[in-house]
Protein 1
Amino acid sequence: MRAASGFRRADVGLGDSRELSRDRPIENAPIPAVCTVAMQQDAGTAAECAVEVGDIVAEGMLLGRATAPTSAHVHSPVPGRVAAVSDIRLPGGAWSTAAVIELSGRFARSGKQLRSYDWRAMSVEAIWERIRKNGVVGLAGETFPLGGPLGVAGGGRRPETLVANGTEPEPYLTGTHRLLVERAPAVVAGLRIAEKLLTPKRVVIAVDAAEPAARVAVELAVKRAGLRYEVAAIETAFPQALDRHVLELVTGRELRHPGVPEDIGCVLAGAQTLEALFQAVVMDRPLCDRIITVSGIVRAPANLKVRIGTRVRELIEECGGFTEPPGTVVVGGPMTGSALLDLDVPVTKGVTGIVALSRRACRVPRLTPCISCGECMRVCPAGLSPILLHRLIEHGRVAESGSRGLEECSECGCCAFVCPAGIRLAESMRRGKAILATGKA
Amino acid sequence: MWSVTLALAPAAAWGVFSFGLVALRTLGAATAAAAATELLLGLLLRRTTIVDGSAILTGLLVGLTMPPSVPVFVPIVASVFAIAVAKWAFGGLGANWVNPALAGHLFVFLSWRGLMTQWVAPRLWGLADGVSAATPLGLAAAAGGGLAALSGSGSTVSALDRAVSAAVGKLLGSADALPRGVVDLFLGIRAGAIGEVSALLLLAGGLFLMARRIVAWQLPFSFLSSVALLAWTFGGRRLGLGYFHGSVLMDLLGGGLLLGAFYMATDPVTSPLSRAGMLVFGLGCGCLTYLVRSLGVYPEGVAFAIVLMNMLTPSINRIFGWRGRTAGKG
């Protein structure tokens, strides 16, 4: 058991928003009459649609075929008929081809006793094959296909440390917490499979120091399985539970741009990802649903097991609707998530939460001149000087801002959150990074 | 801005109690002139900036640096200069390189030196009887420095000071356990600019600002401690006492140091961004203050010191504004 380690830099003081849904058990969301399944489910390459209008599909049948190693298969969350194949908008705002499935027929898998496979008896190649076949992607943060080069595969090198992230990256989200409390053995089983694949020297499970229930559940599951995994309790004041900072805390090494976890000998997998891995390998279940926290100003905040392709509006209605007119509805967490333009977008494998924020919570101070208070510098978890970077970017000296560490910015949004002058610092950082990445303004 | 104004209010009130309604007139003229200039320029340039409170604060600070009975046009000129030239001409709030209040103060100080050094004795309903109309630093400069200047020639300390000093002396069995004049300096029973006299209330306001996290402790700390260290090291030399015999309290409490260190040097716009930069800035302010006081022609050097360091703020930010691993690059 590792002692709670503190965060080097400040917390923006968001209060305890997790209280809303922390104690709500994971429930199944209603099965939608229409599922809109996007071919672009993750941060990788989009899948290629494998069905045509009029096709009858069974539950768990392949809808989209992976086109590259950085791409994952997409399966049908419901049985039914392909009513349309069209371009739709994703929660993040991008466009994607999607198969629209109208529910009909019988469920072949849900509610049935399924055969389980013994992963110990499977070869490493067979396990990888099953992960790819079932379209498993990372379910927190960057949702890369697990079978691909950016996923758990880790480029074939043997990592020093395998880190299971059992913390919540952002305020309001409680899906991972509930999963640990209710299904820690499945997560640990997923971790054992990942360990077999990667053969790391050390396995660490990071849990939230403020959530003893989850920690106890994890420790118990580890003990029952007769394992010697470390459980590291870390403080999760935002933004330190963002993947990169969790790794830094667990390993004590700093991850620098453009570093990937492998650079410091790590592979990181979220608890939900590990559970999906377990389901895919042991139950041979394709990834068709995920846990989504619906919280904020909804009547009954909840942690829902949602079929991919369900519309955001249906989930909000399931939670009793809004308690007041919302200022914005965000997919992901309130800090790094994206505000929805339209509530009728379908959820994808990458949606960790849906948070409705009141008008008051969304209010940004009227833009006033910077008085150089330096607050943004004191909260920046990457140790940058956002205001000075902002000035460089504003003056077109983006290259210079690059040499001052702009690319270390993880876009956590703390700087903009604390700015008393209402300066959109995070937007500015994002713009500067985009210019650095593309080489043009 | 409003918190700073609030923190200054007790010290300002003490100035008015101490010097009478004439001090209120001076403060009012300075504040009104600053607000009017801000409003007028705001109207001309179509910006409503009066609500940010910075102009009112600047006006109040200008007033607080004035001798109580200065002719009314002096604070007005100072405030107009502060707002129009020091602030707006450089682009308004956030873009000015110099503390506007200090710029206004120095502008009139250098223009009407005689008017700006005509002090009045504090009244305080008889409590301050016998206290000189010269400022402690002025007396010290004339006498060659030190607290001794206050009690050196006859009785220039108040009855309260004498009573407390005597009582403390008796209690501790040593006549000079509490040097004469310290109580006066601390409570503000002395001549001086309206806002600088009450060390007690300035300190209380400063602590309030630090508790509210509006002011970071680094800047006042390095400012005050560098003055104190220099005063202790060199202050005794002119009195023939040699090194390390200076009277620290005279330098800390006798002039406008507390007003400058807590309320002027800490102006975020014109001071460095990082805590490390603030330490350097405060150190520079402290050294320059002591240099002007001990070697310059003026008895007081706080305003000059801060303005000079304001000029160095961009350079300090270049070095100390980039933190950690981004510091060495670029």
Note: The CA atoms of residues 20 and 301 of chain A lie 6 Å apart.
Protein 2
Amino acid sequence: MQNKQELLSVITLLAFGVFLILYSLLGLEIGTPRRMSVGFFPLVLGILLVVISGLMAFTYDRARVTKILIDWRACGFVSVAMIVFGLTLRPLGLLPAVMLLCVIASLASRYFHLKTALIVGATVGILTYTLFVVLLDVQLPLIGGWL
Amino acid sequence: MTDFFSNIALGLSVAVSVQNLLFCFIGVFIGTLVGVIPGIGPMTAIALLMPVTFKMEPTTALIMLAGIWYGTGYGGRTASIMLNLPGSPSNAVTCLDGYPLTKAGRGGMALFMTTMASFGGGTIGVIILMVLSPLVAQVAMSFGAPEYFALMLFGLIASSVIAGEAPLKGVAMVIIGIAIGLIGTDINTGDLRFTFGTMSLMDGIAIATLAMGLFGISEIIASVNGDDAPKAGGNTKEFTSNILPTKSEARRSILPVLRGSGIGAFFGALPGTGPSVAAFISYAVEKGISKTPQNFGKGAIEGIMAPEASDNAAEQTAFIPTLALGIPGSATMALMLGALMIHGIAPGPTLATDEPALFWGLIMSFWIGNVMLVLLNVPLIGLWVRLLSMPYLWLFPSVLVFIGIGVYTVHMSTFDIWLVVAFGLAGIWFRALNFPIAPLLLGFVLGPIMEEHFRRAMMMSRGKVDIFFTHPVSAALIAITVGLILVTAYRSWRSHAAQTVKNATS
């Protein structure tokens, strides 16, 4: 029972800040204020983030109870759908990749319906083929690549 | 003055070319569409369409993208009035009096009259934009590196602390955005930063990929099983007949439209406040000065006319800092700048003189776009009403497909698809922690330019930070920025203290 939102915000910012500081100190040249090098700006940004996370850590409302609300089901299916799309786009071609994306992504919804997903996939596949490949000259085959 | 008119003539001649008219129409059409449908915002729509514009003329590309932006202002009120469900955040206030009008059977009149209010507000906004932006650009011509850095600092801080309820989180998002903007090859030294050995990151992150992930993917994940997903459709008949107002309603609408436009024009041009804030304030003003404040919330016509006019005026004047200074005041304007830069056009005060055809052509297209929007929204209202009942099961997979192909075309590589997923998940994480997303995009666009100006200023001053305080313009801007931070800190300290007292006593 705690203010999870704020606690995790502080941790997220601290992690970002520390990463920026370490990366610029170890991997980049800092230079001097007069002749700033590439590490100067990221170092300053990192320090600012650490300061902000510190300010938040001291001021947030500890009496409030908050929860992290994430729709994990939607997160999972949408991400997997996009990744499968990326993997199949060139080997299988535009239409199969689009149909796979639509079916997997539709599983994210509570109202999943296979037939609807397939119809949506086919329609959108042909529409995007017309728009991107025919009209905009993007080099993508409708079906089959170099399988 | 003759200059002014020849510029207008030039702008008109650009805006009425067949190609520009066509894409202006496509833009406002898509804008109305995404405005009508809750769950997809203008940001997602503009980011989605960005890859399509890569091969267009820059002027045409901007005309279309801008059309989406102000088109959503027209479309958004449809869902507010009919379903009590704001199509986009800036139309939320319109629900208060718009939905009661629908319940009283006056929904058709409310839709018709707010279209007129939007047109009035949009028109006034464009006039102010035409007059003010050349003047602002003229003033900015004399700015050097320190002034620019201070101006950008002010813009970023203002836009992250003014409207948001969590100012520290807003500033943190700006900083993270700046850091993401630094990814890639440094223009001065050729050094690689944050590329982790991947070739694909050497050119940096494409703004379209970032925006589609942070807004598009995360918006979809957040709304796919939420209440935002549109379900119910309305009865079309009720909204297409009986649309004319009574004489008294028409008379009571004029002043709220004018006041709303004024308020909107002012807040639209400022960083940090945009259409949403403008609409909210003008509603409060109307309620405050009304002789019958008890009617507000029960279907007062003033309560829908003022916010709708305000919202559309603000959408137009938001272009003043973007076009005249090259400094966007909101995330959407940052996308517009990004689209300019993709075409190799450097934004800044010289834009109006270097690219007069683009500058004036874009502005004049706003007039045409606003007229098109009235034509689209009045006779076609039945179509939009029916679209509201389009199931989300159709909509969201299609948007994902568009995102997938869109980011693929950015570099013709699947790497951008992995990136867009990563940004989508990051967006979900930040949403869950209550971080505002828009400041990140602003930081991303302005970050590299800011670093450049900061570096130049430090070279001018031989490493002394005084330079920002000895130049009067930058000193004034930094003073305002510091004042803003102090006021915000005081406000949140006070509410924090009040909270602690409340917790102690309860």
Note: Chain B touches chain A through 68 residues (CB under 8 Å).
Protein 3
Amino acid sequence: MRFLLVEDNAQLAAAVLDRLSLDGHVVDLAGNLGMAEEFISTTDYDLILLDIMLPDGDGRDFLNAQRAQGRDTPVIVLTARSEVSDRVGALDMGADDYIPKPFDFAELEARCRAVLRRRTGTATNVKRFGSVAFDPLAGTLTKGDTVIALRNRELRLLEVFFAAPGQIIPKPKLVDRLFSYDEDVSENAIEVYVGRLRKHLDGSDVAIVTVRGLGYRLQVP
Amino acid sequence: MTARAAPLSIRRRLTLQLLTGAAVMALVLFLIVYGFARQIGVESQDRILAAAATSILDATTVQSGEVRVDIPYSAFTMLDNAVDDRVFYRITQDGIGLTGYDDLPAARQDAGSGAAFDTVSYRGEALRVATLSRRVSVGGTPARIAVTVGQTQDTQAEMLARILRMTMLIGLGFFAASALLAVLAGRSTAASLRRLAGSVSRRGPADLRPVVAEVPQEMQPLVRSLNSLIARLSGALNRTEDFIAEAAHRVRTPLATVRAHADNTLRRVDKEENRAALREMIRAIDESSRAAGQLLDHAMVSLRADQMELTPVRLRPLVLELVDRLRPVAELKDMDLHFEATGDPEIMGDAILIQNAVRNILDNAIKYAPSESPVDVRLVVSGDRARLTVRDRGRGFPPTGSEGLTGRFARGDNAADIVGSGLGLTIADEVARAHHGQLSIANNEGGPGACVQLSFPLR
């Protein structure tokens, strides 16, 4: 997916950019509203991540102007201000959602997914392996004629596997992707979710295999 | 406790001063009128006495060397008006009595030719006498004929007594009228002060516009300093709000950077020791950012609650929006948020504060409950209150009791493994109180999990 990140803090911007790229997204970075305007006029984005306090103005005014011009690219506002004073303003100005800094990337991802699901509805990046189609936006796994609705953790786990088919993924990494850092979970907890995915994939030509002592691997035809 | 003197009352003091002034004025008025009346009384008696003496003297003739006195009747009719007064007279020739009361003393006469008057004591009574004299020639020798007419002062005393009564009445009337005016003046002065106080205290707590009450000129300086105080206060409040927002920005942006980098690094690092360290780091960042965020939120909530502007708030859409907003967070743990509402209760309050309170309660439920467990949010109207209940299937509040958990930085002793600031329930409790509502926390009856209830009086 193509993101536009409007953020004036270079370090934070670099970190977010790094993460989104890791997840396979294409990201353009605008350090101020002027640059953001230029990017928007030349490129179509799936989603805009917008900071509020920018050197050349208030992100909410920019948002308001965008909506007034009829541009309806989904926008998630990143706010570092107190939520007590800010939240209403951003949503009233036409933002689809907002997330306070500092944020958990898992939450940002979840919010992006929710916004995109609400706004576009249709899947543009369905991944297919053999007889299986995975739509991360809708959260569905299609196996032949059966459509399976995935729960959130199943979805995220499948996303990790589908992003790197054939690669061995160690258990600890899966734990970190699935659970928040203050959840005290053992590595065995991952087995429950892998077990569920295996059940969903049962009867297809795609399988999650255990590599003893190392982790799991998605086996595709 | 020591007794404190009652504060000085402008109204009482002004009234007292005006009353004292009125009393002095009434007394002076009384003395002047009474003295003047007395003088007029004496003067009119003197004139009559002089007229009587003159008519007697005029009727005194010298015939063939003899002084003849033919007292005219009119001389006494003049003095006759007073019923009880007695009249005395004496006519002398060179000091030797010719006729009348021999022992009647004459008024001491000066060299002049006019009548002389005196008040003398005669036969045990005060007598006003007038003496008039003229020179005549009796058989070629000059002689001085003197006529003295006296009159008791009973009528005059009676008249004076009447005048005294009258003047006293006038004085008292004057005093009463002035006293009434004094009280009214005191009251109207106090009223303009009260109007000013009213226009200040009637306004809403967030109303920091200058005071424009109609006040007398003398009170303008007070209004001016009041307005400058209000201006400074509102400036200070705005600065505090800006400061909190700015502080949040300054703290959160670098924390966000560190967290994002740590998160990314965790994705790349394979060695388990390093991963554990990074996880600890992220946990610590979460802890400090949550504490910073909640502290600033708490400061903002306290600030807003102090100057709360009440508007009608519909709870159903408010809670629904929050539930929708937190759904992605709950889904990360495969949790379901169920929202159920009967009716659409409307309360008077500050929507942002209420959102904050509800969000904190929902945050807690999602945080403390296990994966794949449901959170039930119910909004009902019962009696004259709207009740919002949030139930989770988590660990609940510690068995040692949930009292004190609404205190600042208080955390249950069973919550050490979960990142939290100990301010969430404090904020919710503060918001509930500011709305005359209530926050109650308990464990679910007959099952695991916490049950947190917010109740607000209906509009």
Note: Helices of chain A lie at 10-22, 33-42, 59-68, 83-92, 105-119, 152-163, 171-178, 189-201.
Protein 4
Amino acid sequence: MVYLDNAATTWPKPPQVVEEMSKFLTEIGASPGRGGHKKSLEASRTIFEVRLKLSNLLNISDPSRIVFTYNATDALNLAIKGVLSPGDQVITSSIEHNSVTRPLAALGRQGVIVKKIPCDSQGLLDLERLKKTITPATRLIVLTHASNVIGCLTPIEEVGKIAKEADVIFLIDAAQTIGVYPLDLEKIPADLVAFPGHKGLFGPQGTGGLYIREGIQLKTLREGGTGSSSDLEFQPEFLPDKYESGTINAVGIAGLKAGIEFIESQGGIEKIREHEQVLFTKIWNDLKSISKVKLYGPENWSERIGVISFNLGSIGSSEVSHILDQSFEIATRSGLHCSPDAHRTIKTFEQGTVRVSLSYFNTEEDAEALIGAVEQISRTIN
Amino acid sequence: MEQQNYYLYVTFPSVHNGLTLEARLKEEEIPFAVVPTPREISKCCGISIRFMEEWQETILTVIKKNAIKISGIYKLEVNSELKKFKFV
């Protein structure tokens, strides 16, 4: 099976991830942050280490500002609902995933004013329009770092500066970029960054996190046991405990540790990006040469990540994806990719697109298999 | 160790803070133990760092230098079977 659905979750995982999780369950297994016995301490140290690794990855100085969540959606919900109250204005774009669009729509019903800045057909954000949309009521700007449909990058550094100048909180959805595109928070003035553990960081599903800049106060979405301040009825105010109620996914986070170590062992994010560039260039150029193929988003690698959307003539994207799966053993994703706004933006709301998304584990043979298959399918249509 | 008259305990808001100090103390080869926080002072997280009095100044310097968040430092007096905790 050629797996090209890495934007949904990366597969395969490095073998070390499985080993680390197995080791955690068989040798440690205890609940982190609960009790002072050896096993609990070992579990706590595992979590502590992963926070350190993540803070190195994001270039932040205080690892306690990273809280673990179950996925990026969970982190986005905490960030969005933790910041916004009725009467606040929030600015977002027209290429967001439902993980942003839906929490905002829910808050819209409760009196939050949601403004969507349209992006052009390449997914590019109009920064001037963004600036002009900011009012004294604007409390939050939330944008994806890269579209999960088009693959285009958002100019987050510029947006961060605009947000900072206007004293507006800036939240980045790094679902598609963490682990595959550098995100240096010393350079980018973002206040909140939501990320998954199971995509570019090669951790297992059920892992994710939210970075919260010092000084940003979020309302909690859930309260409960934290293993700290147990005598008090109210939730502690310090991080990471404030946002980590209940037993966290320690075995998953142990796996995430091995995922991040794998990236480090391969030479870091730059190396991963170089590998994906080679595959992207081959796939993009070869697909482009097939007459019935339509590709979406920017062609230039510096403006994008390894997520490629295409269509074949007017055939439904699901049909193409199904043929790729059934006849060629190639896993892609079709339809709307939980991002209807992005499809409206590139005018594929009806047809959807076939999405090919890369990982470090994909090979040139995978790229050739895909190109050969699309060529064959294209010959069968008029 | 048990012959000592005094132990000092550093308590922390979060286990994360405790493990931050643990990592620094290991680096600096300062003797300490990570222990469950005694109930008498357990308004904080479940673990404390226990050390002998002679290390107090050194450990305070490490805490300050690394800006580690702590809840307090307590002194345990082991005196004629009476345990007494004092906030230092």
Note: Chain A touches chain B at residues 32-37, 40-41, 44-45, 48, 51, 63-64, 226-232, 236, 238-241 (CB under 8 Å).
